[in-house]
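Lay summary. Proteins are chains of building blocks that fold into shapes, and those shapes determine what they do. In this project we predict the shape from the chain. Here is one chain we studied, written as its sequence of building blocks.
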Amino acid sequence: MYVEELLKQYAAGEKNFQEAALVGVNLSGKDLRGINFRRADLSQAILRGADLSSANLREAKLTGIDLSQATLIEANFISADLTRANLYEADLSRAGLRGARLISANLNRANLPEANLGEANLAQANLCEANLNNASLHRAKMIGVDLTRAILETVNLSNAVMIGALLEGANLVGAIVHGANLEEVDLREADLSRARIIGANLVNANLSRINGRGVNLSWTSLRGANLRRANLYRANLSWANLTESDLSEAVLINANINQTNLHKAKLIGTIMPSGTTHD
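And here is the predicted shape, written in a compact code that computers can read:
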């Protein structure tokens, strides 16, 4: 289908373009609100700055598409293939991306508050400085994802797989991370205040200098984790496994360490729950 024909039909009130073949088309800056592209093929298409608010792109083929700075508010991308898509600074507020493939996608500085990314595949995706406040990433596959300085307040990451993810300086205040696999993640200087990370896997993770005031890490494995200079004031570490972890100069004032496994943990200069400094 030619771009001119599509735009003419859309202007006349037609919004149903299901299964349309639109590989490589250029629709940059176009107003396509509410359009139906379900199962359409828009691979390598250019829609930079376009408005597709409330559009239906369910199960669409969108590999390599350019949606940078596009308005995609409440758009439906359920089970769509966005592999290597460019969504730089795109507005995906309240968008539906459940089960979508976003492998190696560029979501740098994208806006995704309240978006549903449950069970989506975001392996190796770039989400640096993205806004994911209140988003759902339940059971998402996020191996090697880059969330450096991302905003993840009250996000739901329950049972997500985030092995080797980068979260340096990320804001995870009040996040729900129950049962997630965070093995070898980099959380240096991240804000985990009041986050709930119960029964998760943080083996060999880097949590140095985190703000963990009031974080709940009960029943979580932190074996071999780096917690140097971490602020764990009033943290809940009951039944957590901190075997061979490094808690040097960490602050544990008023923390709950009931049944915490500290076997072979480094506690040099650690301020213990009682307020005393460990030798």
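What the prediction tells us: The CA atoms of residues 149 and 187 lie 10 Å apart.
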